[in-house]
UniProtKB/TrEMBL annotation, chain A:
Keywords: Cell inner membrane, Cell membrane, Ion transport, Membrane, NAD, Sodium, Sodium transport, Translocase, Transmembrane, Transmembrane helix, Transport, Ubiquinone. It comes from the Bacteria. GO terms for cellular component: endomembrane system; Gram-negative-bacterium-type cell wall; plasma membrane. InterPro entries: NqrDE/RnfAE (IPR003667), NqrDE/RnfAE_oxidrdctase (IPR050133), NqrE (IPR010967). The keyword Cytoplasm does not apply. The gene is nqrE. It is a multi-pass membrane protein. PANTHER family: INTEGRAL MEMBRANE PROTEIN OF SOXR-REDUCING COMPLEX (PTHR30335), NA(+)-TRANSLOCATING NADH-QUINONE REDUCTASE SUBUNIT E (PTHR30335:SF1). It is found in: Endomembrane system. One of its GO terms (molecular function) is oxidoreductase activity, acting on NAD(P)H, quinone or similar compound as acceptor. The lineage of its organism: Bacteria, Pseudomonadati, Bacteroidota, Bacteroidia, Bacteroidales. This is NADH:ubiquinone reductase (Na(+)-transporting) subunit E.
From TrEMBL, chain B:
PANTHER family: ELECTRON TRANSPORT COMPLEX PROTEIN RNFE (PTHR30586), NA(+)-TRANSLOCATING NADH-QUINONE REDUCTASE SUBUNIT D (PTHR30586:SF1). InterPro entries: NqrD (IPR011292), NqrDE/RnfAE (IPR003667). The gene is nqrD. Belongs to the NqrDE/RnfAE family. Pfam families: Rnf-Nqr. Composed of six subunits; NqrA, NqrB, NqrC, NqrD, NqrE and NqrF. NQR complex catalyzes the reduction of ubiquinone-1 to ubiquinol by two successive reactions, coupled with the transport of Na(+) ions from the cytoplasm to the periplasm. NqrA to NqrE are probably involved in the second step, the conversion of ubisemiquinone to ubiquinol. This is Na(+)-translocating NADH-quinone reductase subunit D. It comes from Candidatus Amulumruptor caecigallinarius.
Length: 205, 207
């Protein structure tokens, strides 16, 4: 039950885009049509669900202060937490490369439509941000990490699909002033959606 | 290099015409997060300039020895090492500011400007132009950061760099700080306004 609550929390209250504004670059760049946006959202969710538990295990059994005590009492003093950043990013980058190869092999059509954005997932701040939040919050078990990762991913997926749908309508039916067309109006729409999502702030689940 | 890229344009183009934030739309996350006050925005801008210039040089020096399959990992490790150095320096000498910036110094690693410039420029150019490119793009990023932070601090808290700017008699006559400016969505709106101004001056950028 606890884990389900964290899952729901991560989707709505702690939404990556609207509460923390992480992962904005690909959010703005890939939201021109719903189909690609949805594909990228799925890829990001997938990456979060994989990398969060891996990084959690790494953090608990290798990096945290005293985490190496399972090797023997003489290691109990070791604190490697200053290495966490470089380890997290290495895990994320290698996972991305793995996923890229897998997608290229098994689903060439998805690979063609995601194109350059797959490697960009490695530098999607939402994914590294997820791992850093995980480190900050001291999750009790690896399942919590899986649930939080899934929740953050789905929240991101919802956000990018929503903005892509809005942008499709905007491009077709509205007359935006020429200098604001494209990226400018997207910023403003995102800001308004962010204000709306603030109504979730402070809800305790 | 097949064609000679003018060093001048490499350095100065990113400041306005090819600005990394408002034209290439890279590195938005940190623009939103660190621009509530002017001082952290300045520090953040400087850190990005330093990291970007050095990582561009390093990647450019080893660009011919990196296998293309694992280039992302190599680039990220170089950037991560530099970011950790900057982070430790800030914690040692400017502890208060580094507390305010918290996780966002670490997130320089995933700042898309870095990966974007490494992929687009450093992987195919010599070290010296790469360094200029790094400084130029870092400065372009820093300028936007400072403009956004200027307006948000002025309108949101009535101060600049911590000094009171809006005089007391304004408050006495009913002027109130705009609390909305402190919230992250307003940073998006300020950036949108910058884009608006810039694109109405440079017609060729309009979509």
């Amino acid at each position: 039950m606890e884990n389900f609550n964290i899952f729901l929390r991560s989707i709505f209250v702690d939404n990556m885009i609207f509460a923390y504004f992480l992962g904005m670059c690909s959010f703005l760049a890939v939201s021109k049509n719903v189909k690609t946006a949805f594909g990228l959202g799925v890829a990001v969710t997938f990456m979060l669900v994989i990398t969060l538990p891996v990084n959690y295990l790494l953090e608990t059994y290798v990096l945290k202060a005293g985490a190496l005590s399972w090797l023997g009492p003489e290691y109990a003093e070791v604190d490697l937490s200053f290495l966490s950043l470089i380890m997290f990013i290495a895990v994320i980058a290698s996972m991305t490369q793995l996923v890229e190869m897998a997608v290229e092999k098994y689903s060439p059509s998805l690979y063609a439509s995601l194109g350059i954005f797959l490697p960009l997932i490695a530098v999607n701040c939402a994914i590294l941000g997820g791992s850093l939040f995980m480190e900050q919050r001291d999750f009790p078990s690896v399942w919590t990490a899986v649930c939080a990762g899934g929740g953050w991913g789905i929240g991101w997926l919802l956000a990018i699909t929503a903005i892509a749908a809005i942008r499709e309508r905007l491009a077709a039916y509205s007359s935006v002033p020429a200098p604001l067309r494209g990226i400018g109006i997207t910023f403003i729409v995102t800001a308004l959606m962010g204000v709306a999502f603030m109504s979730f702030l402070g809800i305790k689940i | 290099m097949a064609e000679k890229v003018s060093l001048r344009s490499v350095l100065f183009n990113p400041l306005s015409r090819n600005n990394p934030v408002v034209v290439q739309v890279l590195g938005i996350c940190s623009v939103l997060a660190v621009t509530v006050k002017l001082a952290p925005a300045l520090v953040m801008g400087l850190s990005v300039i330093v990291v970007l210039a050095f990582s561009n040089v390093i990647i450019s020096l080893i660009r011919n020895t990196i296998p293309t399959n694992i280039r992302i990992i190599v680039q990220l490790v170089v950037v991560a090492a530099l970011v950790i150095i900057v982070d430790q320096l800030l914690q040692a000498y400017m502890y208060d500011v580094s507390k305010q910036l918290s996780v966002f110094i670490s997130l320089i690693i995933t700042n898309c400007i870095l990966m974007g410039r490494l992929e687009a420029f450093a992987m195919s150019n010599k070290p010296w132009p790469s360094m200029l490119d790094g400084i130029g793009n870092g400065a372009g990023y820093a300028i936007i950061l400072v403009i956004v932070a200027f307006f948000r601090e002025l309108l949101g808290s009535g101060t600049l760099l911590g000094y009171q700017v809006v005089p007391q008699w304004c408050y006495d006559h009913g002027y109130v700080n705009n609390g909305l400016m402190i919230l992250p969505p307003m940073a998006l709106i300020v950036v949108a306004c910058i884009i608006w101004v810039q694109r109405s001056r440079n017609k060729e950028l309009q979509e």
